[in-house]
Design goal:
By secondary structure, the chain is an alpha/beta fold. The chain is about 30% helix and about 20% strand.
């Protein structure tokens, strides 16, 4: 019988064993490299496996026969973990898209398409986008007047200069509402059938039109928010911080907030950390009940706190702790999706995010049309049915000064921003000169209160500055319109300057015979 040839020991990665291997070899053997240096490699690299591989006490086996199985187990477990993550991520993504779709009237495909949309917002080409924000308690069935929009404000974005402001409109402002006559503005969105008036988009469409038509404030989009949305949004971001600065050293107190809602409301002056319910309580409080303190302007104080908290919510929403937390993001969109009605699409919201990323939310202007700082714009009014309301100081339905105030806030024209007023008197011998000059002044941003004929004819023109130097840009523009060397006086004295007696405008312009006719 032929004998089997001796087993050849082949090299392993260029190493040649210095002695034969047997089944009784220890787990590690000394091998010699081609350069003559010794090297220690595991015995499992032999071309013939021993039937058993002994281990030394206290040493783990180096038998790699068990490792492929371990790798398979690890890979299998990793695959399972990845599958769970993908499943959870997918479900989270679907939930997020569902919340987005519910809030912004989209679907999975339109929302995905919005991610690459370059659509501009309405008003963006003109440099300003106004969003009407209104709040009601429609989610609180036991609340009187739940459908009334007790919070009405405008978020106005300057898309060129990357600034923003929030402007509140008092809920008691008395306005004409089609099919209802004169009512408080907070009732404007409650009419469900006003198709004869031509207003779109339901009640919020009517509210938009009333603000645009009467007050001259253009509205591009709206969002109707109920109490639950605000409360849940504050909770979703982990609460907000507000700085209470009441004129009362004790802070704020309103016993009208029910105990079941965590009332009565009591907050000290200074920084306060608020959860959703506490923020909602502050948004509701106006201190109009007995024993209240810290609300000297009642509803105006309430709207100021509302604007303050919306800014705080916006600031908190943009922090890394919220943006990088998918659970908080989903909760935030869930709060919006369930409780906000808006005509903003998801693509609109993404575009808004692009436009506002450079806006310092902590320094957004917070204002109200109740007054412009120095001058009251609204005054108390008692309606025929006994309701206490607010109307423009100039009289019922005279909203010109409010429109001018909005223009002052939003225009980049220095004359408009000063909000100067003027009266033009024709003291020359050219018929229609006062009217022609009125048109020029209006085109430059002046609010011309009236024109007339001077008491005498004058060879030279005169500018009478009754603002006493408070309107420097407007005065400078007037000088450019007037003949060179036209005198400027700062009071209504005698002679030609006496023409200004009885007028309250910032400037009275007496046109002499030298005033240009074109």
């Amino acid at each position: 019988m032929d004998r089997k040839p001796p087993r050849r020991i082949t090299s392993i990665d260029g190493f040649i064993p210095t002695r034969k291997l047997s089944s009784k070899s220890i787990s590690r053997v000394s091998l010699q490299r081609p350069d003559g240096r010794a090297s220690v490699v595991p015995a499992v690299q032999r071309t013939q496996r021993p039937t058993a591989l002994p281990t030394h006490k206290g040493q783990p086996t180096t038998d790699k026969a068990t490792k492929p199985k371990s790798k398979k187990k690890l890979l299998k477990r990793a695959a399972m973990v990845m599958a769970v993550l993908v499943l959870v991520g997918g479900l989270f993504g679907l939930r997020l898209f569902a919340n987005l779709s519910h809030a912004f009237h989209g679907n999975l495909f339109s929302d995905a398409k919005a991610l690459v949309s370059t659509e501009k917002l309405k008003g963006e080409d003109q440099g300003r986008v106004n969003i009407l924000l209104a709040g009601n308690s429609a989610d609180d069935p036991g609340h009187d007047g739940a459908q009334l929009t007790d919070s009405i404000m405008i978020l106005s974005l300057d898309t060129n200069n990357h600034t923003a402001m929030m402007l509140s409109i008092p809920r008691d402002t008395w306005v004409p509402i089609p099919s209802m006559g004169h009512q408080k503005i907070n009732a404007a969105n409650t009419v469900s059938d006003f198709s004869q008036a031509g207003y779109p988009s339901g009640g919020m469409g009517q509210l938009e039109q009333i603000i645009s038509t009467n007050m001259g404030i253009p509205i591009q989009y709206y969002a109707l928010i109920n109490y639950t949305a605000f409360k849940d949004a504050v909770n979703a971001v982990g609460g907000i911080a507000v700085n209470i600065q009441s004129p009362d050293p004790r802070g704020l107190f309103d016993p009208n907030i029910e105990i079941s809602d965590g009332g009565p409301l009591k907050m000290p002056n200074g920084n306060n950390s608020l959860n959703g319910q506490q923020a909602l309580n502050l948004a509701r409080a106006r201190g109009d009940s007995y024993y209240s303190y810290g609300f000297p302007q009642s509803d105006f104080d309430r709207t100021e706190h509302q604007r303050q908290m919306l800014v705080a919510l916006g600031v908190k929403s943009k922090t890394a702790g919220v943006v990088a937390n998918p659970i908080k993001v989903n909760k935030l969109f869930a709060a919006i999706g369930k409780n906000v009605k808006t005509d903003l699409s998801f693509a609109n919201v993404l575009r808004l995010n692009q436009l506002t990323k450079d806006i310092d939310l902590a320094h957004i202007k917070s204002l109200t049309i109740a007054n412009d700082g120095d001058t009251e714009l609204l005054t108390n009014y008692t309606a025929a049915d006994g309701q206490a309301a607010l109307i423009p100081v100039a009289g019922l339905d005279s909203f010109n000064r409010i429109e001018q105030y909005y223009q002052q806030l939003t225009s980049n024209n220095p004359v408009v921003k000063e909000g100067s007023t003027a009266v033009v008197l024709n003291g020359g011998d050219t018929t229609g000169l006062a009217h022609t000059t009125e048109q020029k002044l209006q085109s430059q941003g002046y609010n011309v209160l009236g024109i007339g004929t001077a008491g005498h004819t004058y060879s030279h023109s005169m500018i009478i500055d009754l603002s006493h130097g408070k309107m420097p840009n407007s005065l400078q523009a007037l000088k450019k319109l007037a003949p060179t060397g036209t005198p400027v006086v700062t009071s209504a004295g005698s002679g030609q300057s006496a023409e200004a007696n009885g007028y309250t405008a910032d400037f009275v312009i007496v046109l002499g015979q030298n005033w240009p006719t074109n």
